[in-house]
């Protein structure tokens, strides 16, 4: 009986086994289809994404535009972000003061500072504190420049009445920035007094020789606020804060149901080798050049004019085969500083631009001259003027208009490219069908 009952059991079990196998195969096919669909969806999302790349020489304003993009379309800054920028702002002031004090000495203006101090004491004018501008200068030279001070600096918290400093320290800012921020709090009164002197105004007018960030004048005009224990960086403070970009930074935005990715890269020569990693599938390049740097030299190459460097860099970007089908926008930045600088720094007096024939101190002629210089870098002459913007990256209203215009141009270019390829494929398909009919129909 046992043998007789075994045959039906085997007969029944075989279909069950086949059914399980089919179920496994069906499940695998379903999973494979899901993977394929997910890959297709990811591919479609990637192809529909607008990838924008910020390029340009160092200190041209790329990172400021990057920050404006977040301000206009991204998330708000966290308290941790603001504390980092608070440390950076204080550090930026100390870096600027070091350069200004050294430049004052190199210009031989120490006697001028002595004369101004004596006159203020005799006339009882100027700052009515117990410190003269010469004394402020000597303190800053000893502690910040020459490092010859033997006595310890004043406790940075002494002037805060024991009140906790909101900014404090920020590990994200780095050790050097935190140490400079401490120096700022210890010597902010000396910095304020020296900055208000007439002698320092003369030094500031000749700042191009020492490559000081022009917008940091806003910090120097507001020392007391930045030294306050209640100091919390404003939007403007964040925008003008200078942090050197040493790696590729990317932010994502969704604007009008379209995904945007913006990449910021370091502009110094040592950082440009990293650019190649960002060249793949770029929708648009925003090239940033500082108009105000026509009379300055590179920090990393003192004999190279900054504007000449920007022009050569623009030439190499525009004529790079990687960007042959990419929209390229030119942002001529720092127009506000350019307007101020041309009043005392003649364009034609700079050796690389001695061919400037326009009137001196003329903003419009100066702008048109440099626009033509950049156009001369192009092999093709079809660079549309609508792709050129004269900007002030620290002005949010100006940048909102410019970035919105740029976004519109990019989207228009993308649509035109899509229509071109659709027409191309439609034409090719029509030709293939016509050839097929000619060759094969007679044989049918």
From TrEMBL:
Amino acids binding GTP: 59-64, 214-215, 239-245, 264-268, 333-336, 393
MF GO annotations: G protein-coupled receptor binding; G-protein beta/gamma-subunit complex binding; GTP binding; GTPase activity; metal ion binding
Binding site for Mg(2+): 63, 245
Signal peptide (residue range): none
Assigned keywords, A-Z: GTP-binding, Magnesium, Metal-binding, Nucleotide-binding, Transducer
A Gene Ontology term for the protein's cellular component: heterotrimeric G-protein complex
Positions with biased composition (Low complexity): 1-17
Pfam families in alphabetical order: G-alpha (PF00503)
InterPro entries, per database record: Gprotein_alpha_su (IPR001019), GproteinA_insert (IPR011025), P-loop_NTPase (IPR027417)
Biological process (GO), any one: adenylate cyclase-modulating G protein-coupled receptor signaling pathway
Region listing for Disordered, in residue ranges: 1-21, 111-130
Protein name: Uncharacterized protein
Organism: Thalassiosira oceanica
